[in-house]
Amino acid sequence: MQFATTAERKSIARELLGEYAEANVNLFSAYFKLYDSLTNPQHTVVQIHPPTLTSHDDVWKLALKLRANPQTTRKEFSDQAFPSASADPSTIVDKEHAINIAVHLTLMIDCADKDRHSNGYEVGGFTPVSWRDSERLADFVKRVFPMDVHDQEKVRAAVKEKNALKSWKLKKRAHVKFRPTDNLAEHLLYDPRDNVVRVFHQIALLKAHLRLSNSVPVDCAVAECLKM
Questions:
Q1: Pairing mode, if any, of strands 196-200 and 177-181?
Q2: Distance between CA 197 and CA 191 in Å, rounded?
Q3: Mind listing the pLDDT tens digit for each residue in 145-179?
Q4: In angstroms, rounded to a whole number, what is the distance separating the alpha carbons of residues 73 and 60?
Q5: Which end of the chain is flanked by fewer CB atoms within 10 Å, N or C?
Q6: pLDDT for 77-88, tens place per residue?
Q7: d(CA 179, CA 139)
Q8: Residue 198 — left, alpha, or beta (φ > 0 → left; ψ -120 to 50 → alpha)?
Q9: End-to-end CA distance of the chain
Q10: Could you tell me the residue ranges of all domains in the chain?
């Protein structure tokens, strides 16, 4: 697949991020840098069978299909999205990679993160997760972002002291380094081994989603939010 043209980028932005993103596509350079890295991997592949994703339209259509079906498991979604796919191992790998791309571009979550690490791997108490075949998409998202694990006293203390916590202070006094990440699950993850804080840097994307969700109730269920 060739890199997306400006016209194709506008189409992708419109379908996945809304009309504002389409009209201001130049603001989404970070998003399309990620898009290009996912759809044009920097290694040579000898394709024996027809690729699962053959065009940029295929990419955003798959992402929209994923968004519309948050209650399906990964296996169910795979069967629905690729009903006539070959059982050849290389085709299965290509199909699974296509689903990973759709999840990443739609939710900014690396849903195969655990598969790329050894058992027991963790960073600062964070353990990578992957979307299981028997798990519904909505349940996977709730597993990535649990809502009932926060220590309320720590939350109140953090809010009280938030004005005192500045990135420049961390850099100057604690020599903390900040590293951008495209995986929302890693936002503000601190790695004590390297003294690095990972920061989700897709600001334009977050603003686009705020525009799309400004009329959605704050208590909206995860499955309904995923359909936006």
A1: parallel
A2: 6
A3: 987 656 677 777 777 777 777 888 889 999 999 99
A4: 20
A5: C
A6: 999 999 987 788
A7: 28
A8: beta
A9: 27
A10: 6-148+202-226, 152-200
